[in-house]
Every structure is written in C-alpha cells, then in structure tokens.
Design a protein that fits this description.
The protein is α+β, with helices and mostly antiparallel strands. It has helices spanning about 15-35, 50-65, 70-80, 115-130, 130-135, 145-150, 175-190, 195-200, 205-220, 225-240; strands spanning about 85-90, 90-95, 105-110, 160-165. Helices cover about 50% and strands about 10% of the residues. Zinc ion binds next to helix 7.
Length: about 240
C-alpha cells in the first residue's frame, strides 16, 4: 500500500512536557550507568540562541523549511531537553532525541563539505582583517564577517546540501526530531562558532594557517611600502603560535 504524502498517519498525539522530561531523565540515567558519554542540548530561558550567528542559523532554517508545524514542535522538544545527545563532527551531526518511546530516536544530519571556491571566498574575507581571526579563535564570530557566514557563497548550507535521516516512523520529510536537532545545532554554534567550520568539513587550524599565510604573502608584496606593518603581522603570527613559513 502506498503511503500518503500529506497525511502522515503516524503523527501520534504529542507527549506532554512532563512525560518527555521524565523520559529524558530516565535515558540520561541509563546511559550514564552504561558509561556512554552524552552531550545533551540544554537551553536556558526562552531563547534557544543568543548570538547573532546562532540566530542567523535558526532564521535560515525557518526560511528554508516548509514544515512549520514540525519546526514548532522541534522548538518545543529542544527547549524541553529532548535532544539528549548531539555531536558535531566533520560534515555531519549525530544526535539522539527523546520522544514518547523509552528509547530515543537516532538522527543523522549530513552537510556537504564547503567547495574550494567557497573556502577561498571565506579565506579572502578573513585575511583582510587578521584580528577577526583571533576573535574567531576565541569563540566570537565578528559581525564584520557576517558576509562570510550569510552571503551567497557563505558557510550556510543550502537546502540541497543538507541531508537527514531519523529512526522514527514519521514519514514527513522533516520530522520534529530532525527539527529539534537543527535548533540544537544553533544552540551549539552559540557556544562555539568554530563548529560551523567543522560542520562544513573545514579544519580550522588549517584554515587559519592558510588565511594567515595568504595575508602575509600580500603584506610582503607591499613590503617596501609597509615594512612596519609586516613586523606587526609577525607579532600576530606569534599570537597564534604559528611560525612564519
Ligand atoms: Zn523523527
């Protein structure tokens, strides 16, 4: 029998918040006993994210997704603490989300690696103002780099660059568990914007290395005019603990 596209049929009554919280507690206790390291997403207060880049991630999500009801439920889930585990790795996110069943659902989100062209675009933007790199390394995404993040060739994945699977029986293209994980990713970015690079398959140290080297190349090209600044840049290199080539 073919499945209806619009009527998912398996969209059960929603578990209430108290039940969801009870299940979350049980799961976390059980996993702790089993010695499994869980990295739950914990949201303090009403706002899921507080940084501009975390907010941009969530706004982007809402712009792309046509499944508003799933997004709303996803928000409720992430706020309730239902994302009991979320690990960002190179090019993918592995997560577990608690639902009405005792065993949490398994979610995998895959993001295409950033193309060389877009890498070069990001490097060019970052090397222009080298102090931005230092701020980035400290966990602050400077607003000056907004374009790197949001621009057409930026770090944001386009919908066709995102793939996801969930072990739940909801046949909607984006179930509430996937939506909860996507919001959870926003919360993680809030804490550490460098995870953005990780998610796009970029090694941050290498990225910074290339951006600094490329910056120094340009400085040396104009060394006769700006010799003082070159020395200044060497100090920046020392700050990063990276030696000159
Ligand atoms: Zn699901």
């Amino acid at each position: 029998m073919s499945r209806s596209y619009w009527n998912t049929g398996t969209d059960y009554a929603q578990p209430d918040t108290a039940q969801l919280k009870r299940n979350v507690k049980q799961t976390l206790n059980k996993e702790r006993t089993n010695g499994r390291v869980m990295q739950p997403v914990s949201i303090q207060g009403r706002k899921i994210v507080s940084s501009w880049w975390g907010q941009a991630w969530c706004d982007n999500l809402e712009k792309y997704a046509d499944y508003e009801s799933r997004l709303e439920r996803g928000k409720r889930y992430v706020r309730t603490g239902a994302v009991v585990d979320l690990k960002i790795q190179k090019g993918k996110v592995l997560a577990r989300v608690q639902g009405r069943r005792k065993t949490p659902y398994k979610i995998e989100i895959r993001i295409s690696p950033l193309s060389e062209e877009r890498c070069q675009y990001a490097i060019a933007a970052c090397e222009e103002k080298i102090e931005n790199l230092e701020r980035l390394m400290k966990g602050d995404f400077p607003e000056e780099l907004k374009e790197v993040f949001l621009g057409e060739n930026g770090l944001f994945p386009a919908p066709k660059e995102i793939g996801f699977t969930c072990s739940c029986p909801d046949w909607a293209l984006m179930c509430k568990h996937v939506a909860a994980v996507l919001y959870g990713i926003g919360a993680r970015f809030d804490e550490n914007p460098l995870l953005f690079f990780e998610l796009r398959g970029i090694d941050v140290e290498r990225f910074v290395d290339v951006a600094l080297a490329s910056h120094v190349d340009k400085m040396l090209e104009h060394a006769d005019v700006h010799s003082d600044r070159v020395i200044e840049e060497e100090n920046w290199m020392e700050l990063f603990g990276i030696g000159l080539l």
